[in-house]
Task: structure prediction
Amino acid sequence: MTTIFKSILAAILASILSIPLAGCGTPVQRITTTASGNPEVQIDNVDVDAVKSRLLERALTKGFQVESDSASQLVISQELKGMQESLMRLAIANSYSTPVRAVTAITFIKNPAGVKIFSRTTAMSTMPMGQVQKMAMDDANTFNTMQASLDRLKESFNVSAPSTPGSQGSGIGDISGRRRFQGRSASTSSTVFAAGNARSTRRSQA
Result:
């Protein structure tokens, strides 16, 4: 598959993934704008170890695998499912490749106020000869799912967080796409961590 063809296919897939699978309608828009262009959140009055520990617990509860864990970054992964896996396999893999996985790198930056967290998700598959194929998952659905997860993580530390549209409610799925946001922020992709915090969600909606 040529580089030009892959670039065209990637653009097509990005458009497809930004449309809710539940039916027709306008493409999903990002629920907020961030300085980095990726999901991010600032959590004040916490340290990196506390944030990483909570993220890791939630990731393992949701069935994620830990790819690496360093002082400033946690990398987790999960196999894609359904249409999302089929589309990504068409773009970066073939029938002989390993299952396509969504690999999410979460970076922690300590600052005087607390911890700044950045997230980036990439689809990856390994070809029969060992070549690793990658494609950034930067569509609106993936962004919204991860941003809402980070917002809920902030809320779990009992820190007053600005509410972003679509960050309330319980319609959170995981990276695999087995569950989706409903409505304007419908998601076919990854959520990671805050899904397990149902009690916190109910309190925030009360």
About this structure: The CA atoms of residues 20 and 186 lie 6 Å apart. The first helix runs from residue 3 to 17. Helices lie at 3-17, 48-61, 82-92, 140-156, 198-205.
